[in-house]
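As described in the Methods, two query proteins were run sequentially through the folding procedure within a single session, without resetting any intermediate state between them. The first query and its resulting structure tokens are shown here.
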Amino acid sequence: MDDHKRGDKSTQRKANKVLTTKLLIATLAMFGFGFALVPLYDIMCDALGINGKTNREAVAQPLALSPDTSRTVRVEFIAHPNPAMPWEFKPKVTSMDVHPGEVIQTSYYAFNRANKTVIGQAVPSVSPGMGASYFNKVECFCFNKQPLDAKSAVDMPLIFYIERDIPSSIHTLTLSYTLYDITPKDPEGTEGNHGPEDTAQISPSMTLLEDVGQKGAIQ
């Protein structure tokens, strides 16, 4: 009888050990799957052309680029300011009609309402997503973090073109920027005093510009 009980306990311990091992494996698998979701989603969206991401670095303007005057694409500009960030942030124009292959320059306006330097980073997206790969930025304030001194305003330029082979089914592209506050938490490193790293990252686009080259712009 005692041998039978000991056998049952041994069998139960083995079963518990197997179950524990399976649960640990399942937990690790789910943990790994959670990490893999974002890159898998990006890969799927890239393959389907629906992610809306645009180039993160400047592209060279093709030497032989010429506009296709037989058609136009409406480009709409949107800004998503951060409610917790003391910046006014908006496009200088809300939309314009652009010929594919035409190089266009416009800008976004920013004003720092704070009494200290605030550093912003704009993240772009284009919709519909299938049109994002045809929208090329030659220069963009989004390529670098943008320090803005207290009570200062700036026009941040954007130079872009739409590829000539953009599908004829795409009549409108919407370019939107979401603004993030990346100011260091330490006030000594933010108030009118940028370190070498911050200085190196200041874009040439921080100079005030006139809004030029806006053919067909709608204020």
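Immediately afterward, the second query was submitted; its sequence and tokens are:
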Amino acid sequence: MSNYAVATTVVTSQHNVSTTVNGQENMNSSLPNCVDSLVNNIQEQNVQQSIANSEPHLEMEFESEASAYDFYNAYSKTIGFGIRREYGNKSRVDGVLTSRRFTCFKEGIRSVDKRCHSTAEPRAETRTGCQARMAISLDRKIGKYKVVDFIAKHNHPLQPPEHVHMIRSHRRISEAQASQIVLGDESGLTPKDLHEYISKQAGGIETVGFTREDLKNYLKTKRKQSLKYGEVGALMMYFKQESENPSFFYDFQMDVDELITNIFWADAQMINDYGYFGDVITFDTTYKTNKDCRPLGVFVGLNNHRQTVIFGAALLYDETIPSFQWLFETFLKAMGGAKPKTMLTDQDPAMARALSIVMPETFHGL
């Protein structure tokens, strides 16, 4: 059975159960998408009706920056373009956002590519220096944002209705689609299979409303949240209990969204063993801890009786050079800066590169 056939079988069987009452089928495999599509169409019609005769204008008021963005984005969709958040200013006194500019997605000009053009294929130019924009400013007297600048004219052709939904600011993963993505991912389906399956239900890739890259980013965010609220919660409770011992060590790394990505820990016995047997160690990440296949890295050695001893463990978000570099630096911090003479690893090039940066004097064996 092909991967696509598996996608159809698994997602349909888990998310869309057909039942029959009095000989009539109550639910078919496309009902969630049909309902979701109907709701989206109604909402879209309401939005279009509300702004059909309402172009942004000076002194227009909004309760928040987000509501101003939503309005301008909805307006841009009916016209045929997308938008971006440009600059924003915050008060140094209370940190409140005082102004924001929203621009056309074709605003600006790409900077000159200084790379050698014989080795790099330049991407097609997508920006035209379009000046269409809407700017808002906070009126503290009334506690609302007002439009202080608006330019409607564009210097490029606008997108037709059948294409505008694929511009970045208009791409959306609906709740029904999100449920199918999660179920399919938990069943082991690839992002490619999931995107093909949902696209077929929606009537084609051109109508699905999001790209395969959007799907990958959605799954990445969900996995980070899972780590934050699931495994991390249990680990942090464990760390809190163990930290009563001053020799217990743990550290973690966070991304720009303040979600925990990588974690390392070593108890007193591990640190003590490393002091005696840490000349030659092995680092292995071949064990995957859960359905997300998140790598569990373990630093291992042998004692005088040729028994395996563990020097530390790490739960990683991915196997990239930055993750490994952070891990090796944290490992050395836990061990008081003492570097092993030899480290044996697998043939992962990212791991090898990180090791050469953090421990250049250590012999790296494969």
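The first strand starts at residue 20 and ends at 21. We note this only descriptively and draw no conclusion about the first query from it.
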